[in-house]
Amino acid sequence: MHVVAVLALDGVSALDLSIPCQVFAIPTGHDGTPAYEVRVCADRAVAATAGPVEPFRISSSHGWDDVLGAGTVVVPGIPHDQVPSPRALRLLREAAAGGARIASICTGAFVLAHAGLLEGRRATTHWRFADVLAERFPGTRVDPSVLYVDEGRILTSAGIAAGLDLCLHMIRRDHGAAVAAKAARMLVMPPQRTGGQAQYIEYRAPEEDTADLGDTLQWMRGKLGEPLSLADIAAHAMMSRRSLARHFRAQTGTTPLRWLLAQRVQRARELLETTALPLTRVAQECGFGSVETLRHHFARQVGTTPSAYRMAFRV
């Protein structure tokens, strides 16, 4: 069983800590059991924080040294200006050198940076602290506009709830889109959020913008196999194209046609995993029209071909 070690440092964010424990413990295995064993690794009883409050302390039967036996190590956030324990940093470097996948949630990216694991890499963290991370660790290419960054063996996520997106992404990498979708249903959240954390940086009062695209998004999902133009989408939303573009970016972080494309690729992943439909049918069902178009967009978003993906994740 794939072991996920959650490194609990003093001052750990209570929500960040609970996210990987909850997500990876979901019974996503084909026999109805969890596909991962989750271990919280704490050197001693440590204070968990919720903003400025320390609501409780936690202890565990697993110590920091147990991260060395894990396939994945998740580092939840701690106060961004806190200097991590040198021993914890050494263990993270040893785990990475041993082939473990290292992931951070929110300000956990600062811990990875202190360990030298983000040097020369692209990374993200909570948008409030992105500039601080970039200034303190100039060798890291900080991207404040995304929910998570996957650099292969090193992954980072944005603020707090983006840890859910990152954990689902790792399940998707390990077991495919259908298993990740099953976990997302248990969490009552979308399998894959389109857009980035930039959409949450500015707050817009409800009275300033009352448009809700929920019905239109659902309508678009129901018509993935049909040709949809921007005019069609605007007509359903009863908006001008300009208003549609503005509301769409505010609610999804992207444009209508890019959102539609992402949904079509997601549907193609599900069909490749769960059916034996030939690629021509998959392309038609997802609105790509031809296998060549399917291959082009699938490779750009998933990084492999539809045939190779089916061989890897076909149930």
UniProtKB/TrEMBL annotation:
Residues 214-312 form the HTH araC/xylS-type domain. Signal peptide: none annotated. GO terms for molecular function: DNA-binding transcription factor activity; sequence-specific DNA binding. Keywords: DNA-binding, Transcription, Transcription regulation. It holds the Pfam family HTH_18. This is Putative transcriptional regulator.
